[in-house]
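quick one, 222 residues, struct below
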Amino acid sequence: MIRALLADDEAMIRAGVRAILAADPGIEVVAEAADGREAVEQTLRHRPDVALLDIRMPRLDGLAAATELRRAAPGTGVIMLTTFGEDEYIARALSGGASGFLLKSGDPLELIAGVRAVAGGAAYLSPRVAHRVITELGGGRLAVGARARHRIAALTPREREVLALLGAGLSNAEIAARLHVVEGTVKAYVSAILTRLDARNRVQAAVVAYEAGLVAPTGDTP
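---
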């Protein structure tokens, strides 16, 4: 019997996942959690074979919980179950110790297959996620984009806006005109951005903007 834990802050989602897993007589849901911290505590208490974690949860998100479980409960396989398919989530989940990544919008049969695969010591990605990994990792862009997005996470919304325009090749004067501020204000933003990104010059900052997806390949901001 495969023992599973469900962690999601939405009770209806937990009920839906539980119902799907109940269709397989070889899977038993032994515990549920409404946030990441509780998920870690319940996993340590019940030692399930598989923990299904939502990515966005209060107190401790699923990615952080997966990292903790890799250290504290290495015998429990982790599957990230989410509505979000962005590259940074996939890369961070897999590097954080998750053995599976499933989208809530996927086929219910994928959920059962994923639980069985991870419980057996294998990895499992939903077909849609697998396609993204295969196509993106060919050029290493998945990890590069994830790292760049992590770097710009420390920026304020206005700083990200300035970085996007900087990455598109605009001068300080052009950025000032676009944002309706004085050029001195833009200079201050640029200086702060370089410091936060640990970039030595505007070119390095522009590369980060491109890798993070703030600038489209054509040079236009999204």
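The first strand starts at residue 2 and ends at 7.
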